[in-house]
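Let's practice the habit of predicting before peeking. Look at the sequence and jot down your guess about where helices and strands might fall. Then scroll down.
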Amino acid sequence: MEWRFKNNHKVINIGKNFCVAPPWHETDKIKIALTSGKSFGTGVHETTVSCMEIMENLHLTNRSVLDIGSGSGILSIVASKLGARRIVGFDIEKFAVEECIKNACLNNVENIECFVSSTPKSVKGQFDIVIANIFEDVIISMREDITRLTKKGGYALFSGVIIEENFTIQNIFEKLGFKLLKNLFLNDYTTLLFQKGD
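Done guessing? Here is the structure:
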């Protein structure tokens, strides 16, 4: 499989524990390798980086994770590397789902269920963590399903929210019974971590 970046030696260090690097790169960090493709999620974009940094500080061992708009699958792979038991991801684009599956194989991850969909309505059960690194209007449109799919005491991690809409997201999810735990203002976007009330 071809390495995602043209530079065969490119290594991106993220947070305390992760790096995105070629399959042949030797490192003591938790390495994620990505095949070439066009789906979103390389570890370069600030929204992906901020989600990874928050995820490594959550207790994911034996947890269940829903990845809305999974793209390359990088956040699903991160969840698995951090010990998540079950990961479900979906994306509106077929090519993204295909890349997610390829990247999971490349990283020896076998516990990701990935499928094509524009909505989480078909997803059953509840999850310890729901991740959505997508635009805020899509998050808002899925708010009822996100609430349904998040366990009591579970987390909702959102990124891709423009600064001007940050308060809107806060207001909507606080009214739905979520408590804001983190609110990171990046260069162009914001990342929010909520916990669903008991």
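How did you do? Helices lie at 46-55, 74-81, 94-106, 136-141, 143-149, 166-175.
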